[in-house]
Amino acid sequence: MKSALTTWSLGLVLFHQSFAQRSLLRTNGAVACDGEFSPISAADYIAAINPGWNLGNTLDAVPNEGSWNNPPVVASTFEDVKAAGFKSVRIPVTYADHFTSGSPNWTIDPAWLQRVSDVVDMALDNGLFVVTNLHHDSWEWADVTASGANLTMIEEKFYRSWVQIGEKLGCKSSLVALEPINEPPANTAEDGTELNKINDLFLQALVESGGFNTQRVVTLVGGSMDSIKTSQWFKAPTGYSNPWAVQYHYYSPYDFIFQAWGKTVWGSEADKAAIEADFANIRGNFTDIPLVIGEFEVNTLLEPAARRKYIDFAVRTARKYNTSVILWDNGDGALDRATHTWRDPILMDIMFNAVNGVSNSLSDATTDASAVEQLSSAYLFHKVGDDVTDQTATFLLNGNKIESVKVVDGAVLSSPKDYSISDGTLTFKKAFLSTYLSPTAVPGSKANLTVTFSAGADASVEIVQWDVPTLGATTSQAIPGSDLLIPITWKGLYKLAAVKMLRDDGIYLFDDWTQWLGPLQQARGTYSGQWDRGGAHVTIKEAAVSQVVSGKVPTTFTFEFYPRVAGNAVNYTLTV
Ligand SMILES: *[C@@H]1O[C@H](CO)[C@@H](O)[C@H](O)[C@H]1NC(C)=O
Ligand SMILES: *[C@@H]1O[C@H](CO)[C@@H](O)[C@H](O)[C@H]1NC(C)=O
Ligand SMILES: *[C@@H]1O[C@H](CO)[C@@H](O)[C@H](O)[C@H]1NC(C)=O
Ligand SMILES: *[C@@H]1O[C@H](CO)[C@@H](O)[C@H](O)[C@H]1NC(C)=O
Ligand SMILES: *[C@@H]1O[C@H](CO)[C@@H](O)[C@H](O)[C@H]1NC(C)=O
Ligand SMILES: *[C@@H]1O[C@H](CO)[C@@H](O)[C@H](O)[C@H]1NC(C)=O
Questions:
Q1: 490-494 long-range contacts, Cβ below 8 Å, gap at least 24?
Q2: Looking at ligand 5, which residue's alpha carbon is closest to its atom 6?
Q3: Is the CB of 502 inside a 6 Å radius of any atom of ligand 6?
Q4: Any residues with Cβ below 6 Å from ligand 1, and which?
Q5: What does the pLDDT read at residue 11?
Q6: Domain of 454?
Q7: Domain identity same for 509 and 446
Q8: Is residue 475 in a domain?
């Protein structure tokens, strides 16, 4: 990574390592610790944890660690995170299925508390700051908006939970910060007021738990950890000594982050202004409070130029508003924990540079939401049957200069033989491209090039020979009750961009309001909920199949691929 690494946290790390974490339980329940605590202000803490990484879908999985898509965490994952340059980890923990008694004690299984403590130590042993919380409990039992919610029970259980977690973690070093609860639902100002009480109960529980907990940094939360609701309803706690920051989460725009309604394009001035307005709004409400975005991400299935632009802009703008960031990673995201590799190392490098204020040069790509096709300089696409010609790739230099182009694990290209440069535009020569491409070359990824710049992250250019994929069948009757898997022969990238879902009577299968969106979004479904892809098939999810059955009108599903250009799509019809 080119990111400038600081040694800021070294002193604290050494401090952590030099004291054994001995603790003994006082008879009144509060923990007393041997050793000393090195206090740190909330502002210094939040500055020092930037950027952080989330151990998602792990200790927060329901009912247990290992229940979702990740095996139990191992120490080497924290080594990978530290080696990449992250300063901190957020360790979300769900306690819901680990209570061994009910009201009024709400005893947490000691083995589970031990596991949490051990995982926190694994991260600390790698010199990482740690933020840990009570996670999906927010919808398992602590949802103050649920109909008939027993607030007395929620408050009692929440308080007892934090006394016990506080006792268990009370002697950890000041590298450990605590967060009361993840994304607590809130719809009204009343809910917001209840969550202020929850923040207070959390601080009160830390007082009761003893240890170093009243000196420990905490990141308090507002409604849903949404920047607007937090701005509206959060009240600063009074009467507690903890240094505190505010944490919020950011997954906006929803349709781009979660690949809904065909939104694969991002980066217009309006897109940027929306993010900036959100960050400025919460900063404007918390002018002197340290702020951290405890979760944000982009789906790694998205077109790379768009997602890299998003991360660059979001992180750069967070920096502008003096806000630290912690990347969400559910295990299918940034880090492939099994192979110890980052799925998009360039994206990571972009993020680290943005955190440090270093300009990145970025692959240009379509940003216009009303465009009819999506082009991207992260690829050089060549269609089967076409003659090979010179092709260009354009970069937003952002003050840098192009320095070199090389084949990944291969030769450095030479100019003017292989390419020429004009400002931010690289023109790849037909002779060079013909090494990989021809009218009859087998479709697929042919090579990856790395473009380096005078500063900032590298850019990648993938050379792809493509043709329109073919489906193993083109129609069947809609049968509710299960997902429909359709065999596919991919012919280029192993990526699905969007799926249009249009009934034969012209009515959109879902969300007729998408008619107001651009041509690449109208009538498109949502990834994961309505469509998916895997191995050698594409999937129409049960929700979409059922919608066809209940609508009683045959429906055409148009699977769209990259490049998103006219004709790179195939139809499948569900009959009724
Ligand atoms: C609750 O905890 C108290 C204090 O530790 C103990 O005396 C009591 O027996 C516990 N109650 C139950 C129902 O376990
Ligand atoms: C609400 O929770 C409290 C504390 O757990 C309990 O004593 C009370 O019976 C509950 N009320 C209802 C209506 O369930
Ligand atoms: C504070 O947040 C509210 C609610 O989002 C917003 O209306 C207001 O403009 C914000 N204030 C500042 C100074 O940004
Ligand atoms: C960032 O915010 C903290 C408060 O959280 C403040 O102490 C610090 O001076 C700010 N830094 C800049 C560069 O504005
Ligand atoms: C290029 O990189 C992508 C991942 O970014 C990979 O899927 C593909 O196989 C690579 N192509 C070649 C020819 O190695
Ligand atoms: C798919 O079906 C639509 C009608 O829903 C039609 O307009 C389009 O031409 C078809 N595309 C292909 C690739 O057959």
A1: 490/443, 490/536, 491/384, 491/443, 491/444, 491/466, 491/467, 492/381, 492/443, 492/444, 492/445, 492/464, 492/465, 492/466, 492/467, 492/561, 492/562, 493/379, 493/445, 493/464, 493/466, 493/561, 493/562, 494/533
A2: 445
A3: yes
A4: 101, 105
A5: 38
A6: 379-466
A7: no
A8: yes
